[in-house]
Structure formats: C-alpha cells, structure tokens
UniProtKB/TrEMBL annotation:
Keywords for this protein: ATP-binding, Nucleotide-binding, Transport
SMART domains xrefs: AAA (SM00382)
PANTHER family for the chain: INTERMEMBRANE PHOSPHOLIPID TRANSPORT SYSTEM ATP-BINDING PROTEIN MLAF (PTHR43023:SF6), PROTEIN TRIGALACTOSYLDIACYLGLYCEROL 3, CHLOROPLASTIC (PTHR43023)
Transmembrane segments: none
GO MF annotation list: ATP binding
Pfam families: ABC_tran
Protein name: Phospholipid/cholesterol/gamma-HCH transport system ATP-binding protein
Length: 254
C-alpha cells in the first residue's frame, strides 16, 4: 500500500501539487486520472522517487520515504517496476535480453538462470516463441507485453504504469489492462496507473483518484464514477462523446 499525505511540489515558484492525500491499495489496480496538465505525472514521479516532495510524505507499506536510511531507499527502488507509455524497450536487445536486463542489475543470477526466468515471465504475459525477436519485429501490443514482463521481472512490490494503453487499438488495450490487473491480483502488487482512457477506468479502476489543477478533486471506484455529480469529474468523463450518448440514453430511460 502507498499512503500519500499532503504532498506538495512546486517548480520555479509555481505550485503543481497542492497538498494531495490519497491511498493506493495493495493487490489492486489504482488509477490516477485527470485532464492534461493536472499533475498526474508529477505525482507519479514523486512516488517513484524521481522528484523530492517539497512537503508532505509518501509511506510505502508503513514506512515513510523521508524516514528511510539510504540502504532502505536503494532496496525500495529495486522493488518498484515501471511500465512506460511507449514501452521504452532497448532496441538493440532482443525480447529475452530486454527482460534479462533488470535481472542482471539487481540479482546475482547466472546467465542461464536469467534466461530461464525471462522465459518464465514471457510465458506469464502470454508471449511464447518471440524471445529471439527484436522489438522492431513485434507489434505494439506485443511490445507492451514485453515491457510489462520487464517491469515485473524482479517481483516488484509496487508497479507504476504511465498510460499503458496509449497507441493500442481498443481490443488490445483491454487485453493489456486485464493482464496488468491479473498480475496485480496474483502477486499482490500495489499498482498505480495513470490513464486518460475511460474504457480502462471502467475495466480496471478498482480505486480512482481524480486530479484537477494539482488537487485531489474526487476519489472513488469504477462503479461510483458514473454516478457522481461532481462537476469536474462529469466534465472529464463525458468529454467523450460515447459516454455522453450513454448518459443521455440512460436519462431517457433506454
Ligand atoms: N520538471 C518540471 N519542471 C517544471 N515544470 C514541470 C516539470 N514537470 C512538470 N511540470 C509542469 O507541471 C504541470 C503538470 O504536469 P504533468 O506532466 O504532471 O501533467 P499531466 O497531468 O501528467 O499531463 P498529461 O496528461 O498531459 O501527461 C505542467 O504545467 C508541467 O509543465
């Protein structure tokens, strides 16, 4: 679980995060949503330890970051997996080597063991027989699976995903969402996902925080988001024409 208390972050005198308090639960897919520029990435980067908060605290499974010794912080870094928006695979390494890379960084495994482990994880993300392919030789959806496999290679306690669906067709996007959720449940990971995609929110938004102008404007679940009257949330949700039509149809009793 990650507990964030009154998190503040400014750049050049401009306050971007204005005191956010939120909980991201263990074994769940926790989503951060909000309009462009609302502070989602800055929030995520604070949790990843890439930015140092100006105020407030981030507590990982009961231990606050600012109270950790250097060794504890280093250990925590090895327990975080990251799935980037554009997969960010190493172009010059094949699929298997991409997954062996974090295994080499943080483990003392022999090469043969790393290769075996990489192939086990590839099997888990339903990618077999592609291990010797280069990233440029596989589809966007397959690249995302490799990136997910790499992100979970070291059995992270925390998994961070920045728009995991961007660039994918809706069907492939749903497959990736479901895979992230299944792995989150079976490995009891605290997963935090930034998304713009309302389909993903509906599919896997077990907890949702909605940011507006650097503040937490609403929190709830995917069952609650379509029922709320919070204007900021409804503006965001129904900015999609499809959802607007669904709401009109519901109001008209269809
Ligand atoms: N390193 C930085 N230095 C200065 N300003 C920054 C930095 N990173 C982000 N910002 C500013 O913080 C604000 C919030 O940016 P952020 O990237 O968190 O938004 P976002 O909600 O993730 O948007 P998007 O959905 O478009 O990715 C923006 O005004 C941005 O310019």
């Amino acid at each position: 679980m990650i507990q964030v208390n009154n998190l503040k972050k400014s750049f050049n005198g401009e306050e971007i995060l204005k005191g956010i308090t939120a909980t991201f639960e263990k074994g769940k897919t926790n989503m951060i949503i909000g309009a462009s520029g609302s502070g989602k990435s800055v929030f995520l980067k604070n949790m990843l330890g890439l930015f140092v908060p100006d105020d407030g605290e981030i507590v990982y499974d009961g231990v606050a970051l600012n109270e950790m010794e250097i060794e504890e912080k280093s250990k925590l870094r090895t327990e975080m997996g990251m799935l980037f928006q554009h997969s960010a695979l190493f172009d010059s390494l094949n699929v298997e080597e991409n997954i062996m890379f974090p295994l080499r960084m943080f483990n003392r495994m022999r090469k043969k063991e790393r290769r075996e482990k990489a192939n086990e994880i590839l099997e888990r993300v339903n990618l077999v027989n592609l291990n010797k392919k280069m990233p440029s030789e596989i589809s966007g959806g397959q690249q995302k699976r490799v990136a997910l496999a790499r992100a979970i290679a070291n059995n992270p306690r925390f998994l961070f995903c920045d728009e995991p669906n961007s660039g994918l067709d809706p069907k492939t996007a749903t497959v990736i969402d479901n895979l992230i959720q299944e792995i989150t449940h079976e490995r009891n990971i605290t997963t935090v996902i930034i998304s713009h995609d309302m389909n993903s929110v509906m599919e896997i938004g077990e907890t949702i925080v909605f940011l507006k102008d650097g503040k937490l404007a609403w929190k709830g679940t995917n069952n609650e988001i379509f029922k709320t009257d919070n204007e900021a949330v409804t503006d965001f949700v129904y900015s999609s024409n499809l959802f607007k039509k669904v709401r009109i149809a519901q109001n008209e009793g269809f």
